[in-house]
Design goal:
4-stranded antiparallel β-sheet; globular; 115 residues; mainly beta; 11 strands; 7-stranded mixed β-sheet
């Protein structure tokens, strides 16, 4: 199992970024797969995930309609479109997958929101 994130970068407040997660070694369509984020010195927090064949989604309360998770099953990819980014969205963003109760993680991609 491998998860590789990309798409992080530096944007001003109000900007947008799209994170991508390339999954290999398993098929994403029947697994919960999504994103956590972490700021150094703080606890990791769940951002969003998508699961089961119907594509049920979940978002952390702080997202408030700003982020959208999606997946391309044919490409085995998951995306996180982030809009109206705020200073407090600055963090390392990690893609994860829950496969039969075991969590697998990518190495993360840094998102920096600064003016």
């Amino acid at each position: 199992v491998q998860l590789v994130e990309s798409g992080g970068g530096s944007v001003p407040p109000g900007g947008s970024l799209t994170l991508s997660c390339a999954a290999s070694g398993f098929s994403i369509d029947f697994r919960a797969i999504g994103w956590f984020r972490q700021v150094p010195g703080k606890e990791r927090e769940g951002v969003s995930y998508i699961t089961d064949p119907t594509g049920t989604t979940y978002y952390g309360d702080f997202v408030k309609g700003r982020f959208t998770i999606s997946r391309d099953i044919a490409k085995n990819m998951v995306y996180l479109q982030m809009n109206v980014l705020k200073l407090e969205d600055t963090a390392d963003y990690y893609c994860y997958a829950n496969i039969r109760g075991i969590y697998y993680w990518g190495k993360g991609t840094l998102v920096t929101v600064s003016s």
